[in-house]
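Our consortium's second objective concerns turning raw sequence data into structural hypotheses that experimental partners can test. To show how far this objective has progressed, the report includes one record in full. It was chosen at random from the queue rather than selected for favorable results. The single chain below, 331 residues long, was entered without modification.
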Amino acid sequence: MHILHQTIGAPNLHIEADGKTSATLSITPLPTGYGITIGNALRRVLLSSLPGTAVTAMKADGVTHEYSTIKGVKESVFDIILNLRELQLKKHGAGEEIVEIQLKKSGVITAADLKCSSDIEILNPTQHIATCDGADSKKKIQIRVEKGVGYKLVDNKDNSKNDTPEFMLMDANFSPVQLVRYNANPARVGDITNLDELKLEVKTNGAIAAEDAIKFAANLIESYFNLFSLEDAYTDEEFVTTFEQMKRQRETEQLAAAKASETSFTPIDILGLSQRTLNSLVNGGVTSVEQLLKTPMSQLIQLRGFGQKARTELDEVLKERGYHVEAPIPQ
């Protein structure tokens, strides 16, 4: 994955999960405009491309179309279909499964009354399906449960190709993601103030953990963009880099700085300072020329035994050796 190369370092990514069904993604800093770019891409994939489970067809004894009624059931078949579309299910295996719902003489039928195999988990068992009042308890409703992706809209062609006409086909929303919301907020790094921070909130029905849904969507986007990652693809190294290259560059710079710190140690006694001034500096923890040059005069004059004479002597010695000396402190 490529990003615009700026002197902002690699973005920090953090996912905070609030239980299984809710998580918040935070990425910062990002180049200007990338909060919306990344947030919108993740949102589209999360809502449209994650696999899930839904009811795709329904069959009821003696019913031929969705505008019918079932004797002894208060809701119309159309209302029952709408209730079935609200079922939250998780199917582990591939293929379809027929699930039965036995009618009751009287009482409320909920998702907990579904007679399904161990391959299917019911995530909202209190979901209302129908209300029976004098129904025939020997009759039943059958539903077809499938795995799929996105939203499946039934049209006339689907009905004409239906191999089981006794089943009424239903529109199905397979996505396990119930909500995706993101904000691109302003961020800064040092003097660079026109950066972005992306915050993305995801909620699922529990068929997949919200944190896993975010990672799944990101990997899916990456898999498609990898189609463009060809060896002869155009690039401009001055403006484009990768997170891995940035990481290696940062590690190289840190290693070089560590080595330079180890090798750049010049004992302070080579300056030829008087014993009194030398003792004052050493006792104050200043033991090398490099350390001395990094210590402001305002701190040096706080050292015990480092008076005006020591300061004048140090200024003269450093000037003789060509070192930079800060401006004198007003008396």
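The partners drew two points from this record. The domain at 52-173 is CATH 2.170.120.12 (RNA Polymerase Alpha Subunit; Chain A, domain 2). Confidence is low (pLDDT under 50) at residues 1-6, 327-331. Both points have been shared with the crystallography group to help prioritize constructs.
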